[in-house]
Amino acid sequence: MSEHLDVLLIGVCALWGASAGRVLPRAAYRFSVPAGEEWRTACPAGHPVGGWLGPARCRACAGPPYGPRTAAVVVTALVCAALAAATGTRPELFVWLLLAPVGVLLATVDFRVQRLPDPLTLPAAAAALVLLGLTALAPEHAGSGPRPCSARSPSAPATSSSSSSIRAAWASAT
Ligand SMILES: [Zn+2]
Question: Where in this protein does the record put region Disordered (predicted)?
């Protein structure tokens, strides 16, 4: 992959992370309740909060946000950019990019109330299994265990030509 494509991919993934991070604060606020309590349905002043995705800001209060704001955007963007840099243009990247915002949301809730809500962990685990299973069917995946030949030389033809040259050398030696 060329350097330009690398930078472009990382930039696009950072943008995706930033947009995903923008809609996390409301969910982070609503899920941040101690174990055994109902998920929050109202802002700190008691106005009803509708929906799960979006900024954690109450129109009725017109006050400051009651949930995470910039941090969620920055952290999710950085996580997605790091995943893009580490994974490159492989099918698994789509799975990581879908799961990363859920991971940031889980980390936020865990940080605030030391718990990982089941409505987040269970679907995320199921989605990871199904989606990673699907990427295993796609070409260019990298999840089928050790492949020493392809690890040493990423292009298959080079591997087969080197093994055929070994075979030719063996044939000429015997
Ligand atoms: Zn309010």
Answer: 143-174
